[in-house]
Amino acid sequence: MYRISSFVALSACLLAPTVVAASNSSSAFDQGKFQPQDIITRDVAIIGGGSAGTYSAISLKDKGKSVIVIEKKDRIGGHTETYIDPATGTPIDEGVMIFHDIPVVQDYFKRFDLPLDNSSGFFHSLLNYDFRTGKQVNLSFTPSEAEISAAFATYSAQISKYPKLDDGIFLPDPVPEELYMPFGDFVKKYGIQAAVPSMYNYNPGVGNILDIPTLEQFRYWSLQFVQSFTNGFLMTAHRNASELYSKAQAELSSSSSLLLESQVACADRGEDGEGIKLIVSTPKGNKLILAKKLLIAIPPKLDIVAPLDLSNNERSLFGKYIDAGYYVGIIKNTGFPNNASISNAGPNTEYNFPYLPGAYSFAPAGLDSYQMVTYATPQSRKSFPLADQTIKADIVRTVKSLQKQNPDKFASQGEPEWVDFRSHAPYSLQVTAEDIKNGFYKKLYALQGQRNTYWTGAAFMAEDSSLLWKYSEEIVLPQLIASL
Ligand SMILES: Cc1cc2nc3c(=O)[nH]c(=O)nc-3n(C[C@@H](O)[C@@H](O)[C@H](O)COP(=O)(O)OP(=O)(O)OC[C@H]3O[C@@H](n4cnc5c(N)ncnc54)[C@H](O)[C@@H]3O)c2cc1C
Ligand SMILES: *[C@@H]1O[C@H](CO)[C@@H](O)[C@H](O)[C@H]1NC(C)=O
Ligand SMILES: *[C@@H]1O[C@H](CO)[C@@H](O)[C@H](O)[C@H]1NC(C)=O
Ligand SMILES: *[C@@H]1O[C@H](CO)[C@@H](O)[C@H](O)[C@H]1NC(C)=O
Ligand SMILES: *[C@@H]1O[C@H](CO)[C@@H](O)[C@H](O)[C@H]1NC(C)=O
Ligand SMILES: *[C@@H]1O[C@H](CO)[C@@H](O)[C@H](O)[C@H]1NC(C)=O
Predict the structure, then answer these.
(1) Fewer CB within 10 Å: N-end or C-end of the chain?
(2) Could you tell me if 136 and 149 lie in one domain?
């Protein structure tokens, strides 16, 4: 079975125009076909230089292992993105910016000599509008601070029943029904309605949180996340989260441990213990990578991991993922206030959740009259559900309808203009209640170490950089290192 699936990947590789023509599958990886300078031999090859891949590369390097990171973009950092205003050099973080106060975070930033401090100023008072019509919405449910605290205390007590979730998606077997019931049912069961609006506002990119399985809500709103929500998050003191990645990038480049603008064309992950081979297309031609182990740190959606010599088991697991499109941009000439966020609210929906696809909110970006806008699609099986142009046009339409409906509040300032726009699709890979019940996460975790391959990244833990570093450091890398 393994050989058959492996053959499929290799044939695909042979058809790829970027790859050296080879007479048959076994010779595609033939070292004789590469110049010596195009053969890279390392302990570990890492695919993906985002949050989890970069952390893992630095940690392995610090533990004396040689690595090569293969990143498709011209920079590392993944969802950490910072717009630098060309006129003033002012950084505006528009991706990852808040972290938990836990040792792995403190140590990682200290290693790069980057100071952290307490979070501040990233939430403003909210004005609510229906973005379909531009009309103001009065929220139907506005719990008090005391009610919100009490609901979070109850939620924390419930999540604490599963202490192994702190370390990863480690579930009791069989999986308790409570973990795959819709989160909306869990909310009613424990009477924690007062926590729902905050939970929604901090968990964009999954659509209606009441419809997702409770476990999927637990993954993002972890016990650690509740603690930071209550006691405060950390942010970089320079309010420039990308500095972490430009320092990591400089270090990885100078030790020949990074291939940017590069992608795996085909892979042979071998039998257990044999080592792996990759043909990687890079701006300097194809490279042959020979490594003892492979660490995959990209979203395991079938269309994205197709060239990675998948087994039938991997293909069947990854085919189950559902995710959402999530987008962030900076826009000017909106006439929106610089001291409040404008939030999308449904006039008649439960908890006034907005209709999607649509913009979630516009928030002052902290420079000039720039507004940071977030946009999301509902969950689907498509990795890239909407074209960027479609989303940008819908956002501009929203700005205009808000202005038109509220001329006394948001004066038109001419045509809204894009300063920056970034797609974060596919975001927040999740599975259905049925799949959770049938042991999806146990089967997923059983992939660790098989066929010389380890896995990290959000699909294996949570959309949470701090917790991904902890999971990589404490769960994945020890097994990987022991196997070298
Ligand atoms: C807008 C936004 C804001 C967020 N804010 C926060 C926050 O404040 N705090 C927090 O903790 N978390 C935040 N998150 C969640 C974020 O931390 C995680 O989603 C995290 O980035 C996931 O890490 P990862 O390594 O799995 O994926 P990523 O960071 O996305 O990294 C994947 C990397 O792989 C690369 N790649 C993809 N395909 C290929 C391929 N075929 N070959 C080679 N490379 C490839 C990508 O270019 C990328 O660099 C935010 C997410 C978003 C989208
Ligand atoms: C396939 O490639 C191998 C190694 O290069 C070679 O020995 C073998 O003869 C080739 N087989 C065919 C059918 O071309
Ligand atoms: C952050 O807040 C904590 C607790 O309120 C405090 O002890 C700490 O000194 C603060 N850190 C910084 C850098 O301001
Ligand atoms: C919202 O509340 C305000 C103040 O009570 C009221 O004037 C306004 O008409 C309400 N708007 C809607 C859409 O209900
Ligand atoms: C922010 O970080 C980027 C990337 O490291 C860097 O180019 C820029 O100079 C930094 N700006 C400030 C003000 O820290
Ligand atoms: C924002 O500024 C406007 C205009 O100065 C003022 O009327 C309004 O009360 C302010 N809103 C908040 C939430 O501070």
Answers:
(1) N
(2) yes
**Residue 246 near ligand 5, beta carbon < 6 Å:** yes
Cα distance between residue 266 and residue 306, in whole Å: 9
Domain holding 133, by residue range, is 122-231+322-425
Residue 371 lies in a domain: yes
Q: Tell me: do 184 and 127 sit in the same domain.
A: yes
Based on the number of CB atoms within 10 Å of its own CB, is 373 exposed (0-12), middle (13-18) or buried (19 or more)?
buried
CA–CA dist 115, 354 (Å, integer)? 37
Number of domains in the chain: 2
Per-residue confidence band for 385, with pLDDT thresholds at 50, 70 and 90 = confident
User: What is the pTM (predicted TM-score) of this model?
Assistant: 0.93
Q: How many residues are recorded in the chain? A: 484
Q: Whose CA is nearest to atom 13 of ligand 3?
A: 117
Nearest atom in ligand 1 to 464's CA: 11
Average pLDDT score over residue span 423-445: 97
Q: At what angle do helices 183-190 and 145-159 cross, to 10 degrees?
A: 110
Q: Quick one: 338 and 454 in the same domain? A: no
For the chain, the first-to-last Cα distance in angstroms comes to 26
What's the rounded Cα separation, in Å, for the pair 389 and 395? 10
Model confidence over 134-191: pLDDT tens digits?
A: 999 999 999 999 999 999 999 999 999 999 999 999 999 999 999 999 999 999 999 9
* Domain assignment present for 131: yes
CATH assignment at residue 62: 3.50.50.60
| pLDDT computed for residue 331 by the predictor | 98
State the pLDDT at residue 290.
97
CA of 410 to the centre of ligand 6 (A): 13
Say which ligand is closest to the CA of 83: 5
Query: Is the model's pLDDT at 17 over the cut of 80?
Result: no
User: Does residue 196 share a domain with residue 253?
Assistant: no
Considering only CA atoms, which residue is closest to atom 11 of ligand 6?
339
- pLDDT-derived band at 126 (thresholds 50, 70, 90) equals confident
Residue 2 in domain:
no
| Per-residue pLDDT, 2 | 36
Mutation test of ligand 3: which of 118, 119, 234 has the most ligand atoms closer than 8 Å to its C-beta?
A: 118
Ligand 4 close to Cβ of residue 406 (< 6 A): no
Q: Is 236 in the pocket of ligand 5 (CB under 6 A)?
A: no
Q: Is residue 460 part of a domain?
A: yes
